[in-house]
Amino acid sequence: MNVELMGLHVVYVCFIALIIGFMLFRKDTTPVCLIGIFLLGLAATGSLPQSVGGIFTSLIYAMKELLPTILVISVIVGMSQVLSLSGVSDTMISPAAKLIRSPGAAFWIIGIVMMTVSWFFWPSPAVALIGAVLLPAAVRAGLPAMGAAVAMNLFGHGIALSGDYVIQAAPKLTADAAGLPVGSVMEASIPLVAVMGAVTTATAFWFLRRDLRSGALKPESAIKPPAPVIGGTSSGGKLLSGRRRLLLAVAIPLLFAADIAAMFKLNLQGGEATALIGGTAALILLLVSLMAHRGGGFGKTTAYLVDGFHFGFKVFGPVIPIAAFFYLGDAALTELYGHVLPASSHGIVNDLGLALAQTVPVHPAASAVTLTAVGAITGLDGSGFSGISLAGSVASLFSSALGAGAATLTALGQVAAIWVGGGTLIPWALIPAAAICGVDPFELARRNLKPVMIGLAVTTVFAMFLI
């Protein structure tokens, strides 16, 4: 089957290269994406007014696709604020603090608790939820604050965020860009996330123990109070009595556990699972706000939501123009401009994949290395999310050429992008953990560098055998 390539395909490939180049040199990609959308519209329609209007309509399309994800994260962030201010978060995490007896136990307990909380609250809110309780206990046990920051980063912004199995924001973005069901990308990511997480955390712990023994890293005798992470809210407040905090600390995990049980029983994935988690978080926010602030609870509920929305749109603001461009590589082009591609076309990305398969032999090893590289490059902007649509598109292209491995390649690009840009290597992305632990973000990034690079190399080789 011959593939007919048009000017649209050339424009799309050129702007993918430009976007990668801008990310590599840490330049803002939004202008490039907007120009790319305009030129794609011009190549598709030949009409200047339609091309100009297409910039706006493509942003609306991307907003519609991303809005459920933005909203659920915003609500969860608002909920995390009221839990911190009311003291419920302290009570929820305090049992784990009692188990911290040594530096090694501190590292793994902080990491596992961070990972667990991050699945439900996302890593940045999770830092605020657990830092005030577990960090002082870890320091008392002999773990340096830098070690605690490494654990928070690798388990939260690395393992939990790269899989994102509860909120499902990351797999939805990559699955949409690759034209795959969310469930298939999540399933394919499980072994990759497991290998990446095991190798990276074990390597980081080995380096940490080596430096503690050699004296290159020394434990602190005390730790300063954690800095506010989100919306200026500190986690040290106590607006509820001890009995009410205990009641909520037990009830809230049970509610989320019930959500997970419902997802399995009712086979809820993607948008349905997100809606369930988001609705539960909104009800918890309302309940805790009313209990904590009593007569002022209604106004405070709105304030917490507004703060959450501010955080959500600030994080996803840079993602929208990039997603708008990459959505045009698939169904969005036809929806916005009509049938502008040949009748035999299956979308720009699929056409490019078929053309590649017909001209260049593609090997699974080369495909895996390319997806890891693309994912890592897209993470250089420090978002972790702004470029995973690109990873999904490139995965679709290579899997079309290979005839297999679409879900594995998509998941690999997602893992690489989020481990690099989601808050483990880029200094301005890991500020929350650095701030809560009182360490230098650049030094934290340097300490994470070797473990993450080793983990990516091992995971890429592992992926080659899965394709």
From TrEMBL:
Ranges that cross the membrane: 6-25, 32-60, 66-88, 100-120, 126-143, 150-168, 188-208, 246-267, 273-292, 304-328, 362-380, 387-410, 416-437, 449-466
Question: What domain of life does the native source organism fall in?
Answer: Bacteria
Keywords, A to Z?
Membrane, Transmembrane, Transmembrane helix
Name it.
Transporter
Q: Give the species this sequence originates from.
A: Paenibacillus chitinolyticus
